[in-house]
C-alpha cells in the first residue's frame, strides 16, 4: 500500500490499529494482518466506486447531449447519422464530376484526320494524340517510256498513240487542287513542253482535264484529253484526217491506244474503239454550245434538275454526240463503257474568228471483247447537226432526222420511248 497518498479516514483507522495493538509482539501479528487486509479492500472498493461514478457521469452527459439535439431514440439517431453520411458522399461525388467536366471543357479541341474530338485528361496527363491515317497512294506500274519519265515530270499520267502515225506522246495532268494551289488556270500545259518550259510558239503537251483526276481505282466515265492542232502532223493535227479523208484514215486507224501509269503498258485493254467525231463551236454567239468537254461523269450532272438518273445522263450525252457525228462506225456503245474524248482546235472552213473544236470519241475495249473493228461498214453522216454559225455561212439547216443506227447504242430506243420529248437541239439538255 502506498501510504504517501492515504486519506484522513485511512490515517485515522491506521492510528486506531496502532493504539489498539500497540507493540504486542508476535502474538498480535495475525490480528493486525486481518485488520490491515480489511482496510486495503475497503480502499480498493472506494477507488473502483469512484471510477464507476466518473463513467456514469460521462455517459449521462452524452445522453443529455443527444436529448438536447432532439430527444431522438437510438434508432432515429442511427438513421440521422446514415443520412448525414449519404449526403456527404453525394456532395463529394458531384464535386468530382463537376471538376472532371470542367477539366475536359478547358482543353482546346484538336483537329483529328477524320473527325473532330477532344483529348481527355486522365490522372493529370494527356492521352497521346492520334496519328493521321495514311492515305493510300496508287503505285504506278510503269514510270518511263521513250525517255519521258515521272522523275522528269511528276505530272506524267499516261501515254497515247494511234499506231503508225505521229500521234505518239506522253500525257500529263494537274488536278484541280494543284491548279488552285499554284494559281495557274486549267491550261497550264497548253504552251509548255514536257519539262514545263513556257514557250509561246510551243506545241504544248497533251493533258487530261483537271476535273477528272486519274487514279488506280478512280476513273472518269469520260476522260477528256486536250492537244494543239499543229501543222505537219504534230500533236493532235492527225485527228483532222478523220474529217478531211475519213474513209482512208478510219480504214487504217479505227482505234486509239491510251494507257495510264496505273495500267499494264502492253495490255490489250488499253485499246479504245472510235465511234464518233464532231465539229462544235465553243461560244454562244455562234449558236448553241454542246459542252461535251464538261460531260466527264454520267452521274446526272445535267439531269439533276429534272430528277434524272446516271443512265439519263449517259443517253443524253451519247444522243447529242451521235446526232452531231460526221461519221458512223460499226462500234456499239452501252451504259457503263469508259469513254475517251480527244479535243483539238478546228478553224477550217469558217476561219479563226469562229472558235470551234473537233473531238473524237472512242470507248474502251470490254473484258473478253475482240479488239478487231469491222471498218467496211463505216460511213459518213450526210446530215450532221451543226451549229448556227455554220448554217449562216454555209447555208442549209439540220433536217432533224436521226441518220445513225440507234441500235448501236444499247438501250437507247427504250430510253427514247420513255423520254419522247428529248431532242439534241434542246439547250437545256445539251448545255
Defining traits:
alpha+beta; 431 residues; Sortase, Chain: A; 3 domains; eight-stranded mixed beta sheet; 32% helix; 10 helices; two-stranded antiparallel ribbon
Topology:
Elements: H1 8-21, H2 29-70, H3 74-106, E1 110-111, E2 116-117, E3 121-122, E4 125-126, E5 144-145, E6 148-149, E7 156-161, E8 168-172, H4 176-182, E9 207-208, E10 222-226, H5 241-244, H6 246-252, E11 255-260, E12 271-281, H7 310-324, E13 327-328, E14 333-334, E15 339-345, E16 356-364, E17 379-380, H8 388-394, E18 409-410, H9 412-418, H10 427-430
Parallel strand pairs: 10-15, 14-18
Antiparallel strand pairs: 1-2, 3-4, 5-6, 7-8, 7-11, 9-10, 11-12, 12-16, 13-17, 15-16
Describe the structure in brief:
32% of the residues lie in helices and 16% in strands. With 431 residues, the protein is α+β, with helices and mostly antiparallel strands.
Describe what this molecule looks like in 3D.
The chain is an alpha+beta fold and about 425 residues long. The chain has three domains: about 5-70; about 75-125, no CATH class; about 145-430, Sortase (Sortase, Chain: A, Beta Barrel), CATH 2.40.260. It is built from ten helices and 18 strands. It has helices spanning about 10-20, 30-70, 75-105, 175-180, 240-245, 245-250, 310-325, 390-395, 410-420, 425-430; strands spanning about 110, 115, 120, 125, 145, 150, 155-160, 170, 205-210, 220-225, 255-260, 270-280, 325-330, 335, 340-345, 355-365, 380, 410. The chain has an eight-stranded mixed beta sheet with strand order 8-7-11-12-16-15-10-9. Strands 1-2 form a two-stranded antiparallel sheet. Strand 7 (about 155-160) and strand 8 form a beta hairpin. Helix 1 (about 10-20) runs antiparallel to helix 2 (about 30-70). It is globular.
